[in-house]
Design a protein that fits this description.
- Two copies of one chain form a homodimer.
- Chain A folds into three domains: about 15-60, 434 Repressor (Amino-terminal Domain), CATH 1.10.260; about 70-170 and about 305-335, 3-Layer(aba) Sandwich (Rossmann fold), CATH 3.40.50; about 175-305, Response regulator (Rossmann fold, 3-Layer(aba) Sandwich).
- In chain A, the strands form two sheets. Chain A has a six-stranded parallel beta sheet with strand order 2-1-3-4-5-11, with helices on both faces. Chain A has a six-stranded mixed beta sheet with strand order 7-6-8-9-10-12, sandwiched between helices.
- Chain A is of the alpha/beta class.
- In chain A, about 45% of the residues lie in helices and about 15% in strands.
- At the A-B interface, helix 4, helix 5, strand 2 and helix 6 of A face helix 4, helix 5, strand 2 and helix 6 of B.
- The first copy, chain A, binds a DNA duplex through helix 2 and helix 4.
DNA sequence: TTGTATGCGTTATCAT
DNA sequence: ATGATAACGCATACAA
């Protein structure tokens, strides 16, 4: 009983048909009774189900896909599944996909152009029914080339991306940075504010910096170039910036930091050097990662909602999968929230 | 030029063949020249490649899969991709898969039995070439039923799982807890040690508790039942335990905590109540999550290496995919490391 | 070296 | 209500 049937080939519809004493297409009809236009007698329906049970028959998804040109699969490309910003996105997409009975193929691009192109290649070769991307290096023209070869919908995360037939989900981080900087000025009374950014190559880089600058200008302040710095996304990068500031012997009264990891690195390093947060320097991060509630003082930060981003992406995609007539680009904004804690 | 070819059907080998003036199988041969047994003239090889270029031909993976019974896809089931323990595993598996030119289908089980079974169902229906699982509710017998229907290899994470033909990768958390508890006793001089565990349903629950108890016994100590508690994996769960301990008005001098999130919750709540860590209570966690370096005092913890677990799982699987003659169960241990920081 | 014929397991279009 | 038959796109055994 441990090995009910020999590990031969898996049973097919033919096997079921033979056992049930019907033809193979009839088995198909019984099993896909969603098609109500066809009537099937209770008798055969019963016999088929019996045979299915007896053989432990399972439909072969591949054969079905070849025939129907649908795979019940979507593809998702993110930068890195083990990054705290991306994995809630992936999780949300998977959850929505499960509701639609779809599987998800996930690929990490690591911001590498070749990987991003390879992903599109896979999408075409494997005939998935739709794709969600977070393109960093890929341009609208790149995607256009791939899209010209297929009918399937693409949906993208990121305001910076433009293609006339690709839905975009985004978070307005320029405005988030703008409003938060103004908040530092009007609500917290800061007049000397620094900004620690991320490299310009990454889409959020220039946008967040722009929001920061606009806020200063609109409030009649000017940016001190010594306090406009850039680092690499990591806690260690934040520490390096801290040391740099400390060596300059002059420090702004507040710092907008373009991501939480750097912000936390800054806090820890500044504290090690004897500074008090937020008395000596107020610090605002960006992302609201789990560590933000653990660091002391707890980190004031701009919360994106990656789970929401993922849900919006998936919903947009499935809407298009189910309504191929949709073509015009649609824009979906995901909100942000300033989480005021104790670091600013 | 923006739409080089009309979005008709994608070109097939037939189209390539026609354009190149050869037969379709010849195209197939040219494109899969791995088969060195067949010689092809430079002339046709050239013409075929020309035609491929001209048409923008891409092989149809589905059709190939139907024919070859291989999908170049593996499936991975974890509890939750957005859990810090699992996503490095997923990342590692994906990285190895990329080396083999495989795609990865990822599914979240959330410890739900139905999801775990559904995953196996998907594995069979979609004909993936292998599967990696972290089974929580699934038993060896369950898996045996599925395995009897297929030839593909399964590889599993977790010591608790047994099936004669399934490789297991594990981390010996019983020993880890045992040795760390002994370390608290012999190196740190504690004699009154509490243990905060996770529910017994989860495989690590009983194992870690057992390691703890063994250590006490081997050192001639006895466990105080008031200090053997259990909570739910979260920081909030840790806080609740802290309040419970505080209300008891008596607290052990050290606490082994079965995961970092709870340990951090404990630290923060105890500090809020005026306790000093590690002077009043030493605390050791389990997992070495990123937050462990951010909390003050930094958390002493038992580091698993999920990336390594993922790599071992993937390597085991691909070894089996490439050597189907392998059958006997193999065991792979992933090491752990006590990371001594400042909380104990 | 290349072409013909066949089949992988379905779904879909005809008949009946 | 059901059965033949074809087709999806490819790889392979066999023939030439």
């Amino acid at each position: 009983m441990k090995q009910p049937k020999l590990k031969g080939k898996a049973p097919t519809m033919h096997d079921v048909a033979r056992l049930a004493g019907v033809s193979q297409p009839t088995v198909s009809r019984v099993l896909n009774q969603n098609d109500t236009s066809v009537q099937i007698s209770e008798e055969t329906r019963y016999r088929v189900h019996q045979a299915v049970e007896a053989l432990g028959y399972r439909p072969n998804v591949i054969a079905r896909s070849l025939r129907t040109q649908r795979t019940q699969t979507i593809a998702l490309m993110i930068a890195d599944i083990s990054n705290a910003f991306y994995h809630p996105i992936a999780r949300a997409v998977q959850d929505i996909a499960r509701q639609f009975d779809y599987e998800v193929l996930i690929s990490n691009s690591d911001h590498v152009y070749e990987h991003e192109k390879h992903f599109c290649e896979i999408v075409l070769r494997r005939g998935v029914d739709g794709a969600i991307l977070v393109p960093i290096r890929l341009t609208g023209d790149d995607l256009d080339e791939y899209m010209s070869q297929t009918h399937i919908p693409f949906v993208v995360l990121g305001h910076h991306f433009y293609h006339p037939h690709v839905d975009v989900v985004y978070m307005d981080d320029e405005r988030a940075t703008y409003e938060t900087t103004r908040w530092l000025i009007s609500e917290r009374g800061h007049t000397c504010i620094g900004y620690i950014g991320v490299p310009d190559i990454l889409p959020p880089g220039p946008r967040r910096l722009r929001g920061f600058h606009r806020a200063l200008v609109d409030c009649g302040l000017t940016a001190d170039p010594r306090f406009i710095l850039e680092s690499d996304f990591t806690m260690e990068g934040g520490r390096r910036i801290a040391h740099q500031l400390i060596q300059q012997r002059e420090i702004p009264s507040a710092l907008m930091v373009a991501n939480d990891l750097m912000a936390i690195g800054l806090i820890l390093a500044l504290q090690d050097a004897g500074y008090h947060i937020p008395e000596d320097v107020a610090i605002v991060g960006f992302d609201n990662i789990p560590e933000a509630t653990v660091v002391r003082p707890t980190l004031t930060t701009i919360a994106q909602n990656p789970r929401d981003l993922g849900e919006k992406l998936a919903h947009a995609l499935f809407e298009r999968i189910e309504n191929p007539e949709l073509t015009e680009r649609r824009l979906f904004e995901s909100s942000y929230q300033l989480i005021v804690r104790n670091s600013a």
